[in-house]
Amino acid sequence: MLDVVMKIVLAVLCVSMLVALLRLTIGPALADRVVALDLIAALAVGVIVTVAAGTGQRALLDAAVVIALVGFLGTVAYAWFVEKEARS
Asked: Any alpha helices (H) in 27-88, and if so which ranges?
């Protein structure tokens, strides 16, 4: 039963990632692309955590933490860039 749930969750996460990838490619503004990239990072963390829960490999959780931190730092860097552009 748990195996079926894991497959459904992974399928939903993959479809969501494809939709976010579509927004990343056709986003009309830079802000849309940054939000889509942040969403893709969050979905990748979800996929890794789901696989880690299904297989029992705790080492994958380290990769999920790294991806989450890199995604957060990218969003903060973009916010800093927007703030810097607004001042000048």
From this structure: 30-55, 59-87
Burial class (CB in 10 A: 0-12, 13-18, 19+), 60: middle
> What is the per-residue pLDDT across 16-73, written as a single tens digit (0 to 9) for each?
999 999 999 998 998 999 999 999 999 999 999 999 999 999 999 999 999 999 999 9
pTM for this predicted structure: 0.90
In contact, 34 and 75? CB cutoff 8 Å? yes
CA distance 16 to 47: 11
What are the φ/ψ torsions at residue 37 (nearest 5 degrees)?
-65, -40
How many CA atoms lie within 13 Å of 64's alpha carbon, on the beta-carbon side? Answer: 17
